[in-house]
Every structure is written in C-alpha cells, then in structure tokens.
Amino acid sequence: MINTYNFSQSDILIEGKSLSCHRSARLVFAGLDFTMKSGMAMMVRGANGAGKTTLLRVIAGLLPLSGGSLKRPETASLYHYLGHQNALKKQKTVKENLSFWAEFLGNGASRISTTDILEAAGIGGLADMKTAALSSGQQRRLALTRLIVAPRPIWLLDEPLTGLDDNGKDWLTDMAQAHLEQKGLIIAASHEPLVFTTHDLKIGGSER
Amino acid sequence: MSSFIALIRQDIALAWRQNSAGLSISFFMIAVALIPFGLGPDLKLLREIAPGLVWVALLLAVLLSLESIFQADLEDGSFDQYLLSDTPLEILMLAKGLAHWFGVVLPLVLTAPLAGLLLNIDTPSLLPVCLILLAGSPAMSFLGMMGSALAAGVSRSGLLAALMVMPLYVPVLIFGSSALSQILTGAATSDWINAVFLLLSIGGAALFFGPLVAAAGLRAFLK
Prior knowledge:
The structure holds 2 protein chains of 2 kinds. Chain A is an alpha/beta fold. Chain A has 6 helices and 8 strands. Helices cover 28% and strands 25% of the residues of chain A. In chain A, the strands form 2 sheets. A 5-stranded parallel β-sheet of chain A has the order 5-6-7-3-8, sandwiched between helices. Chain A has a 3-stranded antiparallel β-sheet with strand order 2-1-4, with helices on one face. Chain A is globular and about 50 Å long. In chain B, 48% of the residues are buried. Classes of the chains: A alpha/beta, B mainly alpha. Chain A binds chain B through residues 57, 60-64, 75-77, 79-81, 83-92, 96, 100-101, 103-105, 107-108, 146, and chain B through 2-3, 5-7, 10, 13-14, 17-18, 72, 75-78, 80-81, 83-86, 222-223.
C-alpha cells in the first residue's frame, strides 16, 4: 500500500562535516562525515553506545551539536523520528493512538483511512483494543504507522526492527522502498541488516 | 492549530480515563472531612478556619495531579514528537495547561463547595464561594505546570514539583482565603469582588508565563 504524496519541493540535502557530539562531558562521536540526498537511505552502524541514537537525534534537531557543521532543513515538520519509545498512550485504543498522531503530526493530510493503515500493518483486527494489551512487536508496528499517517520526507528510524517478525520486516521494507521511490530520505540505525539501505555509515571503531 | 486541538482533546481524554480529577477530588474531600474529627464539634471554630482550610486542601489536591502533566509524555517518547511539530512548543504547553485546567482543576473546583457543607458553610454563600475558587483555578494549573516542567525527568518529580510550586501558590492562598472569609462573615459583594479580579489577574499572568517557562524547562531538560 503506497501513499500518494510526493515531495516535489526542492531536493532535500543533509550534509554532516566532521560532526562531533558530547553528552554530559563524554565525547560520544567525532569526525563523522556524510552526505544524503532525496531518494537515499543510509544505515548507521556501530557498537552499543557508539552514538547512533545521538546522531539521529542531532539530525532531527532534538540535540545540539558540539562540533562540525550540519546542513539540514530547519523545518521540524519535515522529520519523522522513530525512537526507542513508541510514543503510544497505553490507556487509549490502537485506533485512537493512530488518529491522534494523524491529526497531530499530519494535520489529517493522509488520504488513506486509519482502518486501511492498520490493516496493512497487520493489526487491523486490534483497532479497538487497549494499546497496553498489544505485544511489543504489535506496538512497534503501530508506532511505524505514524510514518504513513503523516507524510513527511525525512525518516529517522532508531532500531526500527525491534520486536518485528519476518512479516513485519517485509512490511517495513515495502514501506521504506515506496518512500525512497517518492524521493524520500531515510537514515536508520540498526544492528540487523536493512534491505532497503543504499549507504553505510559506521560510527566508532574503524572510522571511515 | 489542529495539533493544538488534538493535544487538548487527548489530554482531557487521558485525564478522564486515568480518573485524575476523581483522585484529586477524593483527596480534597477526605482532607476536609477529617478536620472536624481532629478539631472536635466546635461549629464556630470550623466556620472560622473554613476559608483557609478549603484553600489549603484544594491546593494540595492540585499538587497531587501535577506529576501527570509531563511525566508520561517524557517517558513514552511523545515529547520528541511534540518537538517535531510546526506548532511552537510554547503553544503546545498552553494546550497541556488548558487540558489540565479543564480535565482536573475545573471538576475539582466545581465539587469543592460541597465540602463547604461539611465545614458548616451556609447554603447562600456557596455560589460566591464557587466564584472565588473558580477565579483562582487558572492560576493553580498554570503556576503548577511551571514547577511540573522544571521538575520533569527527576524520579519522583511530583514531590519536587510540589516543593517548587508551593511558594508560587502563596499569593493565591492569601487573596483567596481572605476573600472567602469575607464572604462567610457576610461582607458585601463589593468588599470581596476585588479579590476575584486579583485572582484572575494572577491566573492571566500565569497563563502567559506558565507555557513559556514550561517549554524552556523541558527544552533544557532534553538537551
């Protein structure tokens, strides 16, 4: 299922030059260089604590940079950030969570109904269940539906596969590929291989 | 704008589901109901201390609910999403404050005069009492959210928030309870109506500064 939007505005460019970042006086990473354009997908790799999450949050504008220069679109609403936490309210139903984010993040811009989106995510039958009752994989799927319900060109995904079964991974891959075809841009941090990524960025250890 | 409305709707719904208002109301009622047992059946004394008592119990009941304003959003990652919205964080904080006022403080203030009956407040005074409490209620939410935001992220942030908010509530307590005692002693409306405007102007200032302080505090915490 593919959303019919296109990001026809000028091509997006995210460029980092010798980026470095400190978190509470500890140097997390230094000397990172990368260039990303519309239609590209980059996989950020590195050991635990290497700073993958920090890098994604810096690109999203959620954390300040300590050194280097980062060229990125400033408009916050161009970014999707999928963090470790799913940003779901446990007391609300699956459908209510999705409708809230559709309205909050996307101003109801998606032309696909929430029912169809949940169906595609494989949690269509759970629409009226309390989110607390979902398994962690199902909650992850629900969090990932945010990417569809609010069309935004830049996806920053932190360990998107956590908890997903093979079916879920295929669904995410299809979504990501459709997004790239529409000139979207993806930066994902993951320990597991992601089929849709075209570029690699290694943090820590042997620096490129 | 739709983010603003969506957030207000969500927070009111959540307050309703978690029964935040019910918890605060119960606390308030229990606190007020226990006092006569502690003081003995001295109706005159009860009447005299009722204004201060109602206000103190009310403010403590609101303090109970402060932790819930930001803690869940910070823990479940919703806050990151708020920062990736076109709507400025200050406006979103205004939404959260309004939702807290409507979802928790307003039901509390509207049921509070009932407790007055336990304190031997006569029925004709109930309406003015309600008016005074209502006038003080925006200040309770919006002063409260400042402390709640500044304490956010600390474990047991509710307690810390309470410590920070308590001094801010002092002016509300002073003006509120002095107006209340004037009402209960049968003073003319013109004697206490000024306190209504005073409380409302404290609330207005808090409505303006609360979201600014909360947004700044939460931004600083996330960095």
